[in-house]
Amino acid sequence: MKLAILSRKPSLYSTRRLREAAVERGHEVQIVDYLRCYMDITSHRPRVLYQGEPLEGHRAVIPRIAASYTFYGTAVVRQFEMMGVFPANESQGISRSRDKLRCMQLLSRQGIGLPVTGFAHSTKDIEGLLKTVNGAPCVIKLLEGTQGIGVILAETRKAAEAVIEAFRGLDANILVQEFIKEAGGSDIRCIVVGGKVIAAMKRQAKPGEFRSNLHRGGSSEKIRLTPEERSTAVRAAKAMGLNVAGVDLIRSNHGPLVLEVNSSPGLEGIEVTSGIDVAGKIVEFIEKNATPGNTRDRIRA
User: Fold this and answer.
1) Closest CA to 266 of 250, 251, 248, 284
2) Would you name any one GO CC term (predicted)?
3) Cα–Cα distances in Å, from 141 out to 151, 160, 230, 301?
4) Which end of the chain is more exposed for a tag (fewer CB within 10 A), N or C?
5) What range does the domain containing 238 cover?
6) How many domains does the chain have?
């Protein structure tokens, strides 16, 4: 099978591992910088071109779209869908998960556990917004942030008001969430592939930090999920319409809560911690599902 990995950097661990896993299973792999793709959009013969040549003969694509390039990256994925090429994740699922507000709304509609979350436009409504999330301490998140960037813990009401006013002064869109104290600065990253949790790890924030991202110095360890946590992760990925997803959960006094759903989860931390060949599992899923034209999005939102 001929596969394309849509990635800006072939040297990235996740890109390298996906390529290695596919080659080991006898597939032909091409790594494509999606920002250098351009598209011929016609009703009879849609095409994706790269370095002056049409990309042809691919049965599947694996999107590794960076958050800052979501708009153009998903357009490229959508063009492959128009050509009947199977995507590991469809463009609409990627778009849903990247919009944190839309993601939370869709998860809530499916009855999936979330931290109490508020969203407002005007700084005149800060008092009511904070009351919605039970006051301070609370977590303030930029809608466009990734890897813990743009996530702030406001320990007092005054601090929360100042941060919200500063962000709104920059015309930034933010979410405000309740702070789950009992989690103790830890969360759980679950990797869901084809409707099953194939790997999981617990991430712990370093001392003095509440964000558990490994990029921010957090540590990780293997973890055994409860049936409820496993079900929550699978349901969250399904709600987004993602075949491959990293679902971040937090343990609370009232059960597992979803923090985020990631359409391009990093593979290094989870593979090293769990010892599981996640890249191989993704390629195996593609082998079973990459039939021509299998690109229909079953969720409408």
Assistant:
1) 248
2) cytoplasm
3) 5, 11, 25, 23
4) C
5) 182-287
6) 3
| Per-10-residue mean pLDDT, the chain, length 301 | 96 97 97 95 88 93 94 96 95 93 93 90 76 85 68 88 83 85 89 97 76 64 95 97 96 93 95 96 96 54 36
Whether 21 is covered by a domain: the verdict is yes
Residues of the binding site for ATP: 141, 178-179, 187, 211-213
Residues annotated within the binding site are 141, 178-179, 187, 211-213, 248, 260, 262
Which pLDDT score is estimated for 85? 95
Instruction: Give the CATH number of the domain where residue 22 resides.
Output: 3.40.50.20
Local structure of 285: helix, strand or coil: helix
Are both 186 and 175 inside the same structural domain?
no
Q: Compute, in degrees rounded to 10, the torsion defined by CA atoms 272, 276, 282, 284.
A: 150
Can you give the pLDDT at residue 297? Answer: 47
Which tokens go with 197?
């949790």
Determine the pLDDT at residue 291: 77
Q: Tell which residue, 108, 104, 133, has the closest CA to residue 118.
A: 133
User: Which amino acid type is present at position 175?
Assistant: L
Residues annotated within the binding site for Mn(2+) are: 248, 260, 262
Same domain, 66 and 147: no
Cα-Cα-Cα-Cα torsion 82, 65, 150, 148, nearest 10 degrees, comes to: 130
Instruction: Report in angstroms the alpha-carbon separations of 30 from 23, 50, 270, 293.
Output: 10, 11, 24, 20
One-letter identity of residue 19: R
Q: Are the C-beta atoms of 168 and 223 separated by less than 8 Å?
A: no
How many other CB atoms are there within 10 angstroms of residue 7's CB atom?
24
Residues 64, 161 within the same domain? no
In a domain, 109, yes or no: no
